[in-house]
């Protein structure tokens, strides 16, 4: 084969060597750049940032729930200015004036003045009340369940973020392999185009020397035009793949993508993981089940009385007086117990229990759904591997056929149409092999998503 290639014209030799390089197994270097891109995507994705803000919100809500067990201090004050309204009549003069007059006669003085009947205003006039109130719950089951629910909502949001990240990883890897598929197709078309252009040049020289008829020249020109069109389409596909990949990383759409060598076939270790226990969807349902259980407990908490205590330190007096007599303290203990509510509490309990049962049923359904998805993904990967093996076999056959036809054509034992047919079969086999290779990687990425086997930092 090597001796045969050496006998070909220089341009032919270059084209064959370029095509052969494409068909060699790609290097086994680690995909460090892809991992870097995944890290970039996880750090810059706007949807994940939004979910992180929601996580912070839930964390603050949990801290708020915890603070409800601590003392709270409030300051309040009231000032009352009143005139008119209800009064209390007190007959001061009628009660004391006769006695005072007798005392004045006995003492020979006016030491006991005459009094007027009083009309006392019920509304306090020019009166203030200012106080600091410290409250502390001693027994409150609602606060306990509320704290538990808030903590579970934090876990629920963490699972939501992890699910977003896992889906983003799948999209980034799929877009990356789609981009590699397009760039490899471009290289195949470019190399084949050089081969066709050289064939067109040779055919034109042969036609000018009356060695062949015009048909071979026209067919050569048509094949060059067809490959040029295919090359343009592949370039547009590569451009679209680059745009989408950069969109996932939240960076300029036209920014170039640096790629690593991809192993010829992916490792199939993940095929052995036939379980979906690591899926965030199931984790969310388990957390939701716990939340509903606590909601049931919250609905039943009316059976436990609420006990609290409060302490008021303040001052109240008329005319803004502040002294030893105006200052006061008031210590109180409160108890609240819901004894009867016309069945509202029992209905709340039944609703919470129904929600628990609904989540349990949903968990069973989702588990079967995820297992079905995993099995479908595994079947797709097996199919992609079979397609790749078939494409490799076809590639070897078409390459041998092309080499044989090239030799026959140079010896004048085959017409150009037969050589062209061999060339087309060869390039089609290369394209199909390229497609099958990266479809295999994309299928593996889908399995990583289906069984949650990709390790997200």
UniProtKB/TrEMBL annotation:
The protein's name: Transporter
Chief location bin: membrane
Taxonomic placement: Bacteria, Pseudomonadati, Bacteroidota, Sphingobacteriia, Sphingobacteriales
Keywords: Cell outer membrane, Membrane, Transmembrane, Transmembrane beta strand, Transport
InterPro entries (alphabetical): OMP_efflux, TolC-like
UniProt GO MF annotations: efflux transmembrane transporter activity; porin activity
Similarity comment: family membership: Belongs to the outer membrane factor (OMF) (TC 1.B.17) family.
Location relative to the cell: Cell outer membrane
Domain of life: Bacteria
Matching PANTHER family: OUTER MEMBRANE PROTEIN TOLC (PTHR30026:SF20)
GO cellular component: cell outer membrane; efflux pump complex
Residues in coiled coil: none
């Amino acid at each position: 084969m090597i001796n045969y290639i050496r006998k070909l014209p220089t341009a032919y030799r270059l084209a064959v060597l370029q095509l052969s390089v494409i068909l060699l197994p790609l290097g086994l270097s680690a995909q460090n750049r892809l991992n870097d891109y995944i890290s970039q995507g996880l750090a810059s994705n706007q949807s994940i940032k939004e979910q992180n803000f929601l996580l912070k919100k839930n964390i603050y809500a949990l801290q708020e729930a915890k603070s409800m067990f601590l003392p709270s201090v409030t300051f309040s004050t009231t000032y009352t200015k009143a005139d008119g309204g209800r009064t209390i009549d007190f007959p001061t003069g009628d009660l004391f004036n006769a006695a005072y007059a007798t005392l004045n006669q006995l003492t020979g003085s006016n030491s006991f003045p005459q009094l007027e009947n009083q009309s006392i205003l019920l509304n306090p006039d020019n009166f203030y009340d200012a106080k600091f109130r410290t409250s502390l719950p001693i027994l409150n089951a609602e606060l306990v369940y509320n704290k538990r629910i808030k903590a579970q909502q934090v876990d629920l949001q963490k699972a939501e973020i992890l699910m977003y990240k896992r889906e983003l990883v799948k999209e980034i890897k799929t877009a990356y392999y789609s981009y590699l598929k397009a760039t490899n197709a471009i290289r195949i078309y470019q190399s084949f185009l050089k081969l066709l252009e050289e064939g067109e040049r040779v055919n034109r020289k042969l036609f000018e020397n009356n060695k062949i008829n015009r048909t071979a020249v026209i067919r050569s020109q048509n094949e060059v035009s067809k490959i040029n069109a295919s090359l343009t389409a592949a370039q547009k596909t590569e451009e679209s793949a680059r745009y989408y990949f950069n969109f996932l990383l939240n960076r300029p759409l036209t920014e170039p993508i640096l790629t690593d060598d991809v192993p010829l076939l992916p490792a199939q270790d993940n095929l052995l993981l036939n379980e979906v226990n690591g899926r965030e969807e199931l984790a969310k349902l388990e957390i939701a089940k716990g939340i509903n259980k606590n909601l049931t407990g919250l609905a039943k908490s009316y059976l436990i009385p609420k006990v609290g205590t409060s302490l008021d330190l303040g001052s109240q007096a008329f005319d803004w007086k502040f002294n030893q007599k105006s200052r006061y303290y008031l210590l109180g203990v409160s108890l609240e117990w819901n004894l009867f509510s016309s069945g509202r509490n029992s209905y709340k309990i039944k609703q919470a229990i129904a929600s628990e049962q609904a989540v349990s049923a949903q968990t069973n359904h989702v588990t079967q759904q995820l297992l079905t998805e995993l099995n479908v993904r595994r079947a797709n990967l097996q199919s992609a591997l079979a397609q790749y093996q078939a494409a490799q076999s076809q590639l070897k056959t078409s390459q041998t056929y092309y080499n044989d036809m090239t030799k026959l054509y140079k010896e004048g034992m085959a017409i150009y149409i037969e050589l062209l047919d061999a060339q087309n079969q060869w390039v089609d086999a290369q394209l199909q092999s390229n497609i099958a290779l990266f479809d295999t990687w994309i299928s593996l990425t889908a399995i990583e998503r289906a069984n949650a086997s990709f390790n997200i930092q």
